[in-house]
Every structure is written in C-alpha cells, then in structure tokens.
Amino acid sequence: MNIEIRQEAFNPWYEIETYQAQIQKSGQFGAQATFIGSMRDFNEGDRVTGMQLEHYPGMTEKHLEEICNEAGNKWELIDILVLHRVGTINIADPIVLVSVWSAHRAAAFEACRFIMEDLKSKAPFWKQEMLKEGKRWVEKNTPG
Amino acid sequence: MSIKVKYFASLREILGRSEDSVDAGNGPITVAELWDKVAGEQNSLPDNVLTAINMEYVKADARVKDGDEVAFFPPVTGG
Q: Is B9 on the interface with A (CB under 8 A)?
C-alpha cells in the first residue's frame, strides 16, 4: 500500500505503471480499478482559472491510511495506491489518484469507490478556487 | 496546561493566523471553550466547523488535555 501527498504535478498513468512494476504481484491480481480526479475549469456556474489545495499535514496521511485499512478489512485486496495533490493546481491537472488491485473485479470496483468517497468526507483537504475576479473557498463536495 | 491550536482554510483567514500556543490554566476545558478563548467574542464557533484533538475528529464538547494539539477547520473538500 502506498499513500502520498504531492506538492508537484503527477502523471497518474506513469505512477500506476511504476507502482505496479514495483510491487511485483503480476499474476496475483485479475482486476484493477482506478479513479482519477482532475481540475475542472468550471464550478457552480462560474469559470475557474486555478486552485490552491491546502491540507493538514499528518492528519491527512493518518486518515487516508485508516480509510485504506478499512477498505482492506471489507474487501479482499492485493494492493492500494493513493496519491493526492496539494499546493497550486492548474486546470486539467490530476488532483487525486486511487488505484486498487484485487483478484476479482467486484472488490476492486467497490473498494475504489469506497476509498474515494471516504477521502472526500474525511481527509482534511480544502480547495480554494481562483476566479476571474477574486477567489473563494469551496464549501461543499459535489454529490458525485 | 499548554495546548497547541491550529486553524485551516477559511478559519485561518478569519482569525488571521494558522496556530496558537495557549496556556489554558489548570481547570478542565472543552474544545468549544478553547475556541472562545482563542477566537474572541466576535467569532463564535460556526456550526459546520470540524474539530480534532491529536489528529482525530472529536465533538466540540470533548475534553482537552495538557500537551494536546487541537485543530479547527471547515468541512473538507478534497478529491
């Protein structure tokens, strides 16, 4: 399992490929589900030009680890990779990557969704959007 | 009793600082009472604020101990 908070932009496909090569579990898994969340250029009817993502160092990693451990207790999983950006985010930048490996598809699909939804409600991250005029804190998550 | 208090996102901006070191006296104190002490009368604890002690979520009536790190922050919006 690997959980990382990144200050710099990342390429999710490179990260998945690299991590999968590193864990050396080919043959064990028959399924992998991945979610990638990226930066939109619109929100709540307004044009968004960029974003600052803040987090609570220490508490964020702790809660992401708890969420992944809980997923590991609920489903038969082979491995989990979670990356999350902080700092200055540009339009179209990947913000979050959740990738789950398992023997069969149900566990991978369900655990990936579970980790993502729990991350959104529990992990202490905050988004501040840059607009054409000024900036604003995002106050709630989209329904999904 | 020495307590480290942290503020994040919009709360950090409202208070104009990211943390405080508070000497909370010797008596028992709750998270909500600690907020009143650090934020002043003009900033009552907003209803939707989340609170944590030592990086675990707690309710505002949770008791704070010497050496604790207490955090106040708005609803989280990661992902």
A: yes
